[in-house]
Structures are given as structure tokens and as C-alpha cells.
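Feature request, filed as a ticket because there's no other form

It would be nice if the structure record came with a short human-readable summary line next to the C-alpha cells. Right now we just get the raw output. Example of a typical job, pasted below so the devs can see what we mean:
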Amino acid sequence: MYLEVKIKVVYGAHDPRVVGSIPTLPAFEWLFMFLKFIPISILIIPLLSSITSGFFGRFWGYKGAGTLSTNLIAITCLMSYISFYKVGFLKMPYYLKLGSWINSDLFYVEWSFIFDSLSVTMLVVVTTVSWLVHMYSCSYMSEDPHLVRFISYLSLFTFFMIILVTADNFLQLFMGWEGVGLCSYLLINFWFTRIQANKSAIKALVVNKIGDYALFLAIVLIYLTFKSVDYSVVFLLIPFFVYSKTFIFFYYFNTINVICFLLFIGAVGKSAQIGLHTWLPDAMEGPTPVSALIHAATMVTAGIFLIIRCSPIFEYSIYILNLITFIGALTAFFAATIGLVQNDIKKIIAYSTCSQLGYMAFVCGLSEYSVSLFHLSNHAFFKALLFLSAGSVIHGLGNEQDIRKMGGLVNILPFTYAMFLIGSLSLAGFPFLSGFYSKDIILELAFTKYTVQSVFAFWLGSLTAFFTAVYSFRLLYYVFYIKPNSFKKITEKAHELPLMMGVPLFILSFGSIFTGYMTKDFFVGVGSDFFVDSIFILPKHNIIIDAEFIPFYIKLIPTILSLSGIFISLYFIHFFEITLVSVRKYNFFNKIYKFLIHKWYIDFIYNEIVAKRFLILSYNTCFKLLDKGFVEILGPKGIVSMLYRISINFRYQQTGFLYQYISVMLCINLYLYIYMLLFL
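Raw output as currently delivered:
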């Protein structure tokens, strides 16, 4: 094992130079040594936190384990910000090589990590949210006897997520990919005595395995095509394999298209796009901090990160880019419509997450990967704020999650209300908050593309912005404004969150307000070179400049729809609530309501048509006919029964009379004597 750190200074888009040594002054030598070991520390500290909490936490108690893990993740967060400064401002991407991992004939893979502008941006998002969730969990889960195990799982998830975003090859990325899936299963199933938590965890694992299998096939095909799984090798060779063909199921397909399709299916599973989205709402069975960490800011964005990281591959597959645009826009609209009728506070926010992931996906299909990452980072702050604020409401009302049983909390939980309001305004795209900047530029780019897919994405995205504002403020109104609908004893016991839960919300609120404004020119500004070393866009696909010249009224459409959604939601619920309920008596509106409350019947199709057919096939055909039939008859059962019958027949030949044994021996000898005379 050895440690090799390469510092690459980027002087221009096409002029990377590797600096062999850095001249240092003796007085600052300790500082350079410290900076040199920051990358390895970012990787090791979360793993150390998980191990110490999991194996030794019982010696320190939940307070000691929680405090230690929170401080260790805080150190990791600080180092991530230092790395962000070095890469983003000093333009010094660097690589960390720890040694050989797999060395088998021509297949060689190293333990290597890349810290470029894309990786460090994701590191800042992951470690910041993880640190705040660790701090929040120490208070939120303080009465749980298994808090130490919970903290250990959170730290382990952070470690695997860091492995995923800093990996320098596809195989190492796949390791982090599977690791976060494992931690997701463990955290959703944290309260394993609850049957619904068991079912939700298994569902999340099984549905994600579809995407994982597609990603694994993509990695295999990448190696067969390029004879390497390293990013640097694969991305450089892509232009030479644009016309390469792959023989699959008696047909020749374009290799790049097949690789991109499989990578996208992997992203669909992890980032909950329509078709493989069904696990995300059910994953709300886990503790609320899990929802904030995994299902709002980090794990569900892994699929979007995969698409952004593989931008040099996707840029040469226009058909898959169009497919991503279509699926992303449909996901955004689909999830927003379902969020309109949900009554579980966490499931409303979960469908909101699914909808925002659709925005991130379809802007990737427009080849504007930096804009997708911009929305990803903004979304991480205000969605984590919403989930943790929802946890405060649930904590204050004795684990109640039905918004129809809440109300009147604006005076009881004023701080939580303020945080919830900031998160809802940012989610709805209220002007000059973080969500406003990223959502508006996404829709402007969709209009600028002037293709069927982009126009489809623009109008569905605009309608989604309207529906997002409606369900966000419907949720806010039912929780805080209407007359209390809960039991008196629950309302009387409702209390504001403690300090250790309030500090993370306060920090996230600043991110929800200011992140978009502070980073818009840095990330997506015209002429910005922040992602020049990590994101590749073909010149003919770059439309960021054209978006500056679209008509002004087009730019106002998303904002007008968002503000209209806020007004309509509050106005109609306040003055016409009874009318809205009675409208469902009409057949047309009742059918629409049933269609939405049953989630477009996608779960019904999976459960009643697909799953039942597979169960019948697996039991009657695979189990009864094949396993219990042919396999057992021709296999172990048939052999055992045949040997048993043969042994029974031989047993009957043992009579115990000597003259019979002598007669048999004479017959055998006579037969052998005649055979020798005739044939020898």
C-alpha cells in the first residue's frame, strides 16, 4: 500500500498540467502537509465514526457516541469545504491513489479517487447535510434505546456516499452505489419490529436491484468495449467508438446507445424516476432523519450524479438524451399531481422529492448538466429543511403524521412554522429564494431547445411548478393554520423543538434562502469555467447563452404559475374547503381523485398484474413443475429412490444358503469360460 497524491492545475479547458512538486516555505510546511492528507481524511473519518459508534458505542452511551460521531462528521464537512476552495477557487483538481485493488491479467483496477469540481460540490452537499442530520438525530432519537446503532448506520451511509462521488472508476462507483443501497435498507428497516418497515425496506431493496443490475451490465459492456473501467480512459475513447455496434438478441445496436440506456436505467432506479419510483414514498417508514439524509439530499441524487459524471458518454447518444428529457418531465408532473391529494406529511414531501428529481433529470437530457447539479445542491438544503421541520411537527404531536389531524400549530410551534415556511417558499419557487433560481433556469433552457421533447418538458415543468406551489401550501395550511383537529391532550402536550434540533434547521434555512443567489453565477453563469474539468458538453448542445434571449414573458410564466398556485391554494382552502370536499361527489371529479389517490394505478399494475403473474409462474411452473418435478426426479430424489430400490432387490438375494451361493459362482465361471472360448 502506498499513498500517491497528484496535484493537477488546470490552466485552460485543454491544457492540463501536472505539477510534480510544490515549492513550500518552511514556516508553512505543516500547512501543506495538512492539506495533503485532507483527501484521505475525508474518506477515513466517516468510516472511523461508524466503526467506533457501532462497536464501542455501548461503552460511551448514546450521548457520547452521538457527540463523537457528530464531531467527526463536522470535521469531514470542514475538510470538504477546504477541498471545495482548493478545487473551485484555486483550480487545483487532484487525484488520490491508494494502491492496486484488482490485478487479473488485463483487468486492472486501482483504489483511486478524483477530487474535481463535480466531486467536491457533491462532497459539500453530502457532508453538510449529513453533519446536520447527525446533530438533529442525537436529540430526535434520544429516547430510542438503539440510537448508537442508528448513528453508526448514518456514518456508514456517509462513507459509502463519499466513495460513490469521489470514485475514479466505474467499479469503485458501483461499490459505493451498492453500499448506499445497503445502508438505505438498514435505515428504513431500523425499527425492524414493525411489519410495514420490513415490507418497505424489502421493496426499496428489490426495486433498486433492477437499476443496480442495469448499471452492472453497463459496466461490463464498458469494459468489453474499452478494455478499461477508468473514467479517464473511457471518456477519452468515446469519440472513437461512436459507430461501434454490439450484437444483442440477434440484432446489432449502437454500443454507445446501449451503454447510455443501461446507465440511465440505473439512474431511474436510484433516483426514483417514473416506473421505478414506487419505493421512495414507502421508504418514509424509516425515522424522519433518514428521510432527510437519504431520500431528500444524497442517495436519491446518486442517479443524477451518475448521469452528470458520464456526460462525455451521454453527449454522443442523442436518442437517450431525448428519452431522459421525456422521462424526467413526465416524472416531475406525475409526482406533483399525486402530491396534491396525499395526507401523510412525509409522503407529500417524498413525492415532492420525486418531482424535483424529474427536473434534474430532464435538464440533463437537455445537456445542461451544470444546471442539474445547481438544482441538486439547492434542493438538498430546502428539502432537508422540510423533512427536518416535518420531524419537528411529528415529534411535537406524539408521532402523528396525518395532516388532517393537525392544525393550529402556528402559535404553538412558531420556530418550526418559520422554518417550514422558508422551505415551502423555496420549493415553490418564490422569487429570490434558492429554488427560484434553479427552477427558472431549467424551464428557460427547456423552452430554448426548440424540440418536441423540450417543449413537452417546458409545459409539463411549468404545470409542475404550479402544482408544487399548491400542495406545498396546502400542507402548510393544514398543519399550521386551520383549527386544531387533533385530540386536546395531544395539542396541549405539543412543544417546540429543543436547541440541538433547532440549530440544524436554522443553518439549512440560510442555505434555502441564499445558496441559489450566491452560486448561480459561479455554477451556471455564462462564461463560468467551474465545471470545465468534470463536465463535457458538445458545442452544438450548449444552449445556455440562447436562454438569455428568449422573450421576457416566457421567463415570467413559471414565476406567475408558482405565485398563482400559492394564492389559489390558500384562498380556496380557506374560503371554499367544504366546496372542495363536496366536488368529489360528482362522477368526473371523483374519477380524477381516485386516479390520483391510487397513484395513477402504477402500484396496482405492479401488484395485481405483474407481481401476481410472476408469483403464479414461480410457484406453479418453476417450483412445482421444475424444482419439485424434473429437478428432483432426475436429481437427488430420483437417484436416492433408484438406489433404494436396487438395494432392496439385492437384499432379497441374500438367502443365507451356501449351495445357492456356490451355484451362482459356478454359473458365472461357466459363462466366463464359454465367452473366452468363443471370442478369445
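Something like this underneath would help us a lot:
Residues 1-28 have pLDDT under 50 and may be disordered.
The radius of gyration is 30 Å.
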